[in-house]
Amino acid sequence: MSDRKGLAVIYDPHNLYQFIWYYCNKGKDAEWDALCLPNGYKGEYMHSYCEKAGIFSHIYKDDTDFSKLSAVKKAIMMLKMTGYFLVGKRKSYCRKLLNRYVDLQEYEEIVVIADVGIVSGACVALGEEKEVIILEDGPSDYSKRPMFLGKSKLLSLYNWQGFFLARMGYCSPGWFYFKPDKYCVKYSSQPEKMQYGNYREIRQLYEADGTDGELFGQITEKLYPALKNIRFEEAEAVIFTRPFEDYVSDIEKYKKRVEDYVMKNCKSVILKTHPREKEIYCFGDQIEIQTVDNSVPAEVLLPYLRGKEAVVVTTSTIMLYLKAYEIHCTALFFDGLYEESVKSNTAFVPMTAGEAEKFCERFVQDWYGIEVL
């Protein structure tokens, strides 16, 4: 057994899939534990998938979802964090927070998916004393990270919280410049397109060189045996959803637009729901639907979908990988969604159609189309 111990902070299927690759590429010589935390809907299910993976010595979990705390509890936490910052004990607070879950001193290396959450941000904040790896979170990784609030964010309480937390060095909700990143290694699927580079090093995600491909395949097949039951050859398209509740409270009118589009344009589809998806789509009896459970990461499907059509509800991380598999993408955008989201003061704001076109041109290039519904 290795003397080197590492901790993987796991939130969702996408997160776990990336870590399995990292384990097969760089991490086989270490003993790993997992800390499973909720990521909105059904976050606790990652605990059982980490057990199935068979690569973790100990698996810890907690049901605390900081994004769901009451306004009073959030305010109390912000006051504590500010107090520790003002007396120069920010890192002490981060250690105290992480020791609620694990014995932090056991670990030399920590792997997280981003620096925006309270727990993962605390890990990144300790990058001077731990080897901290930051995996790819999604499209936001490729945006610029301002040091200050822009005019469009001045009325957003979420972004004000993110601004202060980032400047104090705790975490970066809202994707602001975060000084502790400079001590960490970042993995990216398209490093050359990143606009924010405040990392010790940026490495290629899913690099084949040095990866134990056989082991990677064995682990993913063990985790997702249901893949064998999907009739990929019969489907003409795959639909990747995004929870509309990320953007607005009144979701039915937008969900119906997706249903109408699919019923008009498709006959046989694979429906891949988002890990946080709660909604049930109804496409009528005329369309054959094969539903993939939202515990399965979308990336696992791609080798089986080569040459098919992907329909993506707003922008998605999966769009970063489609061109490599020659999968044409139709990105769905929704008239009024951006404006309603801004008025709702939500944590997530969708791209405008213009921003979406620029995003698609950067990452999908000539393998996409945009439909505004």
Explain what this protein looks like in three dimensions.
Helix content is 30%, strand content 17%. It is of the alpha/beta class and 373 residues long. Strands 3-2-1-4-5-6-7 form a seven-stranded parallel sheet, with helices on both faces. A six-stranded parallel sheet has the order 10-9-8-11-12-13, covered by helices on one side.
* Uncertain runs: none
Give the amount of beta strand, in percent: 15-25%
N-to-C CA distance:
56 Å
Q: Looking across the biggest beta sheet, what order are the strands in?
A: 3-2-1-4-5-6-7
Q: Main beta sheet: strand number and arrangement? A: 7 strands, parallel
What's the SSE pattern?
EHEHEHHEHEHEEHEHEEEEHHE
Helical residues, percent: 25-40%
The count of helical stretches stands at 10
Q: What's the overall average pLDDT, rounded?
A: 90
Radius of gyration equals 20 Å
List how many beta strands DSSP finds. Answer: 13
Fold blueprint:
Layout: E1 5-10, H1 13-27, E2 31-36, H2 46-53, E3 58-61, H3 71-86, H4 90-98, E4 109-112, H5 118-125, E5 131-134, H6 157-168, E6 185-188, E7 201-204, H7 213-223, E8 237-240, H8 252-265, E9 268-272, E10 288-292, E11 309-313, E12 328-333, H9 337-344, H10 353-363, E13 368-372
Parallel strand pairs: 1-2, 1-4, 2-3, 4-5, 5-6, 6-7, 8-9, 8-11, 9-10, 11-12, 12-13
Brief account:
The protein is of the alpha/beta class. 30% of the residues lie in helices and 17% in strands. The chain contains 10 helices and 13 strands.
